[in-house]
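Notes from the 1:1 (GR / supervisor)

We went over the backlog. Supervisor wanted to see one worked example end to end before approving the batch request, so GR pasted a single chain during the call. The sequence is below; no edits were made to it. Supervisor asked that the structure be written out right there so they could see what the output format looks like.
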Amino acid sequence: MPIIYYDGNCVYCYNYAIWLIQNGLSHRYEFATIKGKYGEHFFKQYPEAENRNSVILQEGNHLEYKSNAIATLITSLPNNHKWLGIGLRVVPKPLRDLGYNLFANNRDKMWKTHWHKPTEYEKSFFLDDNAKIKLT
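Structure output shown during the call:
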């Protein structure tokens, strides 16, 4: 199963995961926090990924980071959002990653949002419990 590693302390990262689920993400995908037990195991297997400040999509031994991971996930959706993922792929990768980095490095300075309270279905996508997002 593909695993999406994300920053479990980031409300935007978590809410993006929920957005994907709510928009039809296949249940073959699962989410794990980078600093959780699954993330620790992942970084033991792939130490080269540890210094990435990024969402990471792992499909077998294939890894995608930053905007590539985002575009792949959006493209996998079964609805009209698929076109957004395809549109992202048209933008040159250095420009996409620049936008990703600007957002990632400034996310705490942006507008305020809240942690979405997950439904039981949404919880079923998450491999590890994260007290900050109250998956229990």
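Supervisor's comment: Helices lie at 11-22, 37-45, 66-75, 82-90, 93-106, 120-123.
Batch request approved.
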